[in-house]
Amino acid sequence: MTMELPRLLVGPASKWAYPVLVNSSSPSNGNVALKGMPYDDRVYTCDSATAP
Question: Is 20 exposed, middle or buried (0-12, 13-18, 19+ CB in 10 A)?
Answer without folding.
Answer: middle
